[in-house]
Please model this.
Amino acid sequence: MKQVTLGGDIWSYEEQGTGQPWVLVHGFPLDRRIWTGVAAELSRTHRVITLDLPGFGKSTLGSGFTILSLADGIAEFANRLQLGRFALAGLSMGGYIAEAFASKHESMLTALALVDTKAEADNPQQKQGRDKMIELVRTSGSKAVADDMLGKMLSPETIRSSPQIVRDLRAMMEAVPPKTIEIALAAMRDRREYLSLLPKLSVPLLIVVGADDVISPPSLAQAMQQAAPKAKVAVIPSAGHLAPLEQPKAVADALGGFVA
Ligand code: MLT
Model:
């Protein structure tokens, strides 16, 4: 485990392998370990960095964040590590951050991978859902949020066949502090849309989606591809919203094959 201090926050990260760098950004309410299996595979051919966003995993939370401030934080993080140009993959909330990153720092990227995510902003009903969830975490803590989300995050097949994945995921979600959950929910609620950005990008774009993802379903991956027809799409069988956790080899193959 390594650490850098950026603007008052300690960012924890791990790196392995050599070659062209990949930076892998986790979703909500998760941490870098969601990428462990992907990193193990992908690091055979690439340098792979997995990080904990501020307040998640082993990173500390200073004054709070927005999706855009996290994108700027990743730019600073990459500069501090002297990565040069790198490929960026973001899972779900990490995808929102990756989109924001591409909107401001595209020249730092060799490739962009949006995994189990979408490019639309929250609609009014979804914003209300965020506010309800903020209330829930304030009153009942992180476990209540895990209880609410867990069943939607994995494919039925993973739930049936991999009880250890379900247990590890629950522990990861329950370990995220309530304050971080609250700030992340507000950050996601207030993010802008990036669908209109996608056609303007010249960085190669890969869209990865679990075939059984009910949070960011394949139809939303299709909407991204319609906006950016040159994008490549990889649909991962037997995976829900957490394809990197559920099918790490297939996701690593998709990423590795994209930046050969
Ligand atoms: C995530 O997995 O990061 C979140 O479910 C994304 C979201 O709630 O929009």
